[in-house]
Amino acid sequence: MKTNKIAYLAIAYMVVIALIIANVGYLMATGKNLYSQGNIQAYAQNRAVKTTPVYSQRGTIYSSDGQIVAQDVTKYKLVVIIDASRPGYGDTPSHLVDYDALINDVSVIIGMEPAKMKEKLQYSKDNNLYQMEFGSYGNSLSAIQKKQIEALDIAGIEFSEVLSRNYPLGDFASYVVGYALNKYVSEDDQKIVGEYGIEKTYNDLLAGVNGYESYQVDTSGYVLPGGIIEDVEPENGDIINLTIDSSLQRDLDTLMEENLSGAGATLGSCVIIEAKTGRILAQSNYPSYNPNDRNIENYTNFLTEYPYEVGSIFKPFVYSYMIDNGLYNGEELYQSGSYQVKTSSGKVTATIRDWNNSGWGMISFNEGLYRSSNTAICNLLSRVPDHDDLVNFYKELGFFQSSQVDGFDITGGIGPNGELTNFYTSGFGQGTTLTLYQLARAYSIFANDGKMITPYWIDSIIDGDSSEVLYSANTEYSNQLISSDTVSKMKDLLYRVTHFEYGTGARYQIDDSEITIIGKTGTGQIAENGGYSSDEYSHSFVGLFPYEDPEIIIAFCYLGEYATGSWPDNIIKGITPAAYNTVHKYQEDTTSIEGMVNTLPSFVNQSTGFATSQIGESKLEAVVVGNGSTVVSQYPTAYTTVNVGDKIFVKTDGNEIAMPDVTGWSRKDISTFASMANISVNIKGDGQVATSQSVAANTVLTSGQSVEVVLGN
Length: 713
Hints:
With 713 residues, the protein is an alpha+beta fold. The chain is built from 20 helices and 35 strands.
């Protein structure tokens, strides 16, 4: 009996072995289980190999003087586990136990009111939530905030890294730079995507290409030793260098905000252009926005996308055409006041009046431009033998046709419609529309001997990995549009607009200054509901300086009430000296400056002591922001060219920031410190350097604190 039992067991054992061998053979041949037909091979591969992305660094955007305008930063998301069922580590809990520390200490670090945090904690507990999050307060914490919270050693607190785009200068040429947003497809697929401005237009170049790592893992998902199968490095995004100067841009933004808010303007824009090259040194829109907050009221870039009836600022182009074609005698007199537009048969189609309705009697055509006379334009246009030829001249100036520059769409506007009356009204900027960009570009013929330049924003694009220059801007000139003689005569006429006692641009003269500005004003009606607004107008000015050989073009417009007050001239007079100094700063031959320091090193992640000693040895002045031991950022950035005596700002990981003595500091230096210290500075006075400050030196500052600094000479 025992022998039979052993025999049966032996047979069963052989059958099992045979089945296993058959299944293994079938699995090897097909990749499937013989009995279940499950795809074991695919299952094993999926379980054995894991691929994770290695994110590329989005390209940094710099100002022309090397200040960071947009950059990638690592932020942290705060999560607190409140479920007591979460397993701890021995006697150490892994859920929140110390509620008071969270409410009283963490709330201060993340800027959340303790009462609000207590309420949120109670809600999370009442609803049996596993974890607690803090919305905007806890979703984008800095490395310093993370370090401060970790130092509290509160059980249950966890952090996760978050991709983020940061704009250190805040509201700074925002309609040019634009903004980018975090896009989370999944935990393993995070992207920063440009949504507006340069960030959107150049998104593919800025974004780079992500890499990835593939590696073998065990059944629990842990990486096996030596298990990396493939490692593909990311391609970092390209670097974009703007033509915009950070100091000039800050000054312009401040002047625009202060004056146009005071004027009750609804929209406005100002652009400053280096006349000989086309480099846009500053562009400010009103109202503006902070790309970190995206508090946007209007998505239209006024400079490039808002065509409007520009008014009398258009008149110099009619004068230029008449002079260039031998149809002009500036000393000839005409009757101002009103003009009747008549057809060839003598039918009156319109009666056009000067802006003051009554005119100034018999005056010369030269004086007609100084006083901005509509009837002067009408009398001149009546002598044009070929209307189409004049309209073609307008088009050569880039009017009434769309274009694209550096990825920005320049709206074309509406040109003359072929009707006789419209031909006359278009001569003084009514019945047709242009953008402020088109006006500024066209006025460049008076600075470039009759040729037009194309204003641009992007100076260069640099490969993010190799530092190879991929693109470098060049000045683009048009054909000769008017003669040198015409340019000379027009400059003289525009000089009288700003220097004639009754000239419409006299308000823009800069008293007691060696800088002589020339230009033209314009007031236009705003189309509204099939007619014109009765209480809002466009107010424009395009100026060039210095008069003898213009180096700078400044174009400005805002929409508001007819009574303009002193708001526009505050902006023009306030920014002109700074613009002049900026152009000459870039024109200097810096290679000949004695004592220049080249290629400023990177101090980031170095000790504060080492950084300050290196700065001092280079005969530079170190300004330390914070009481930490490690440098987390610096300005100017690494590899920037600096001069002996320049201030080098280094921000540390310390949370305690003391107010320095800013006596003798420039506006730019003060703004740089304010940005790094996260304080608000109200700068008053028209001088070049700081003479007093409202907060005493060595006072410890709080985040968002307001400090007043007065500039004098």
